[in-house]
Amino acid sequence: MRFICFLWFLGLGVYADCQTANTAIGRVTYEFVHKTNLQTGYLHKEQMVLEYGNNMSKYYSLTAKLQDSMMQQKFENAMRNGSNNVDLGMIVAANKETIFFNRITKQLQLIEHYRNAYYLITDKGALPKWTIQKNTKKIDGYDCQSAITNFRGRTYTAWFTTQIPLSFGPWKLNGLPGLILEAYDANKEVQFNFRWLVQANNLGNIQLPTNAIITTEKDFDKMKLAYEQGAQNNSAAMSGMQIQISNVQLNGRKLNDTTFMQHNGNPIELKKE
């Protein structure tokens, strides 16, 4: 398989950090678990991070960030050494989407990174409407209370702590009177399991990239589909490229293993609101 083909598939690149007045004061790491195939029980797992300040949060895949950096380094080393073959080895299907939430304006915005460009999409769906429960427990020493919501086709339970009185949470689960440390849907098909929490004053800034292209989810999906169909139709024209990719496995399976490509039939959002 050729070099250009993998650029569009992997979406290589490093997220562009910008100056901002919204300083990150905390960082939560979750293990994200998603049962993407109800028939086989396939579980997708990756490490996700929620960075938060007083007014804004940023949620992204740590797995994707580390993996992109590793793959970029392998390409650079191959070019530096004059090699025409890049051995990527094991890679993980990781989320390229970054989610920003402003708790003052209640605005939820998504940044999609695709083909070395950033696309800004405003999520206009309804925010979660929570019912706070009496149940309590401790998570990593924090006193937590439970709340439930019916959101985007699933019923979620979240555990939040008012010891950090900021209305942020993983993914699009925001709006409680405290930080969400754990959440899962009723069938445990989607889980955000707490791993660790860091609080400090030097965790960087939170801001949308200034060079993002403003679009809608519909137009973004249409653009992406058109490009990928064009890439498939023109794959034969890439036969003259010199750099080759070898030994690639996605979640432990070869990329031509069609059983893997069929697993994503249980989306997180079962319906739009």
Compile the SSE list and pairings.
Blueprint: H1 3-10, E1 26-37, E2 42-52, E3 56-61, H2 62-80, E4 85-87, E5 90-91, E6 97-102, E7 107-114, E8 117-123, E9 131-139, E10 142-151, E11 154-161, E12 179-185, E13 190-199, E14 213-215, H3 217-233, E15 244-246, E16 249-250, E17 253-254, H4 258-261
Parallel strand pairs: 4-15, 5-16, 8-14
Antiparallel strand pairs: 1-2, 1-13, 2-3, 3-6, 6-7, 7-8, 9-10, 10-11, 11-12, 12-13, 16-17
Give your account of this protein's structure.
There is one protein chain. With 273 residues, the protein is of the alpha+beta class. It is built from 4 helices and 17 strands. The chain has helices at residues 3-10, 62-80, 217-233, 258-261; strands at 26-37, 42-52, 56-61, 85-87, 90-91, 97-102, 107-114, 117-123, 131-139, 142-151, 154-161, 179-185, 190-199, 213-215, 244-246, 249-250, 253-254. The strands form 3 sheets. The chain has a 12-stranded mixed beta sheet. A 3-stranded mixed beta sheet has the order 5-16-17, with no helix packed on it. Strands 4-15 form a two-stranded parallel sheet. A hairpin with a 2-residue loop joins β9 (131-139) and β10 (142-151). The N and C termini lie far apart (40 Å). The model is unreliable at 1-20 and 235-262 (pLDDT under 50).
